[in-house]
Design brief:
By secondary structure, the protein is an alpha+beta fold. The strands form two sheets. The protein has a two-stranded antiparallel ribbon with strand order 1-2. The chain is elongated, with a radius of gyration of 19 Å. β3 and β4 form a beta hairpin. The protein is built from two helices and four strands. The protein has one domain.
Length: 85
């Protein structure tokens, strides 16, 4: 299983409300879970605990995983095509 598959998306609300008092629904990842798989993608607090995820780095990693998956699909197609001859 690829490492990224072990990370689950979640919804949450920050405990501290925004300036307008709202607590809108947020979408993200659990920093502790990300730290267990990709420690370089989290920011640690002074105590060394995972505090937040570096979301700005995710698009690059997702693109990389998509490219790997595409290559695997293409390889599977070649194997299937050659096997059917």
């Amino acid at each position: 299983m690829r490492k990224g598959i072990a990370i689950r998306p979640v919804t949450f609300r920050y405990t501290k409300p925004c300036e307008d008092g709202e607590q809108p629904l947020q979408y993200g990842l659990v920093a502790e879970e990300v730290a267990a798989v990709f420690p370089n993608l989290v920011v640690l607090n002074p105590e060394g605990q995972a505090e937040t995820v570096k979301y700005r780095l995710h698009p690059t990693l997702l693109l990389n995983e998509m490219q790997k998956q595409k290559a695997e699909i293409e390889q599977s197609k070649k194997i299937r095509k050659n096997g059917l001859k």
